[in-house]
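Late entry, written up from scratch paper. The run itself happened at the end of the previous shift, but nothing got recorded in the book at the time, so transcribing now.
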Amino acid sequence: MTLAIELPADQHETGNWLPVCDPSTLVPGRGVAALLPDGTQAALFLDRTGHPYAIDNRDPFTGAYVLSRGLTGTANGRPFVASPLLKQRFDLETGVCLDDPGVSVVVYRVREVGGEG
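Output as recorded:
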């Protein structure tokens, strides 16, 4: 099995699910970065129950591609990743910054696919 993320319509030619990694490469609480076809990056995470998440890897406050290196946790029942630079927390389900709701990152749907995707 492979984890795949759903790409926006302008980023795919033959299908909108991009295989990105084997689920066994994800460790709960630690992220990995994946390079997307348009040159941007996604940050993938696995929570302690085995649920995968994917968001934009670019920290909107600094412009650095570092969210995959952030610390994960929960706040009021919401899963988040905290940027390793300025510590803003981003909801892994909605992409909204918990510390500044006017700022958000892209969220990608994630699913398991068999074989090559």
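Strands lie at 2-6, 17-21, 32-35, 41-46, 52-56, 71-75, 78-82, 89-91, 107-108, 110-113.
(Scratch paper discarded after transcription.)
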